[in-house]
Amino acid sequence: SPGFIFAMGGKPLIAPWILGGYPGSNKVFSNKLEKVNIEDLKNSWILTEPNTVQSLDENLLKMKGIYLNDDKQYKLVMEIDSSKINPAFGYKSIQYLYKPLKKNNP
Questions:
Q1: What pLDDT was estimated at residue 103?
Q2: 47, 96 in Cβ contact below 8 A?
């Protein structure tokens, strides 16, 4: 949800929400990643929704040294089954919230 970051009292480094699943979505994501301080991003909470037609390519994060499944960098703190919130999607949709474990600076 685009409002999730604000509900948590956070502020977006890139954008509150980047829509996936459209022509050019990953290009927009890649361009946004180029404009943000990567060290700040490495120390930010990240919300993803993998394995759907709307997903952004997580390899773009990996190219910046961000590995959400690396238990030294991030901890999965919440799973949200958004297909139960909005069954009109018509497909299984799980969102994952990751917390940086410590300052991820080298």
A1: 67
A2: yes
Tokens for 7? 């509900």
Answer yes or no: are the C-beta atoms of 58 and 68 closer than 8 Å: yes
Whole-prediction pTM = 0.83
Amino acid present at 85: I
* CA atoms of 106 and 96, how far apart (whole Å): 25
DSSP secondary structure letters along 3-70 = THHHHTT---SS-S----SSTTHHHHHHHHHHHS-HHHHHTS-EEE--SSTT---THHHHTTT--TT-
Structure token digits, residue 45: 């909470």
The pLDDT tens digits of the residues spanning 7-25 come to 888 888 877 778 888 999 9
Annotate 69-87 with DSSP letters as a single string: T-TTTEEEEEEEEHHHH-G
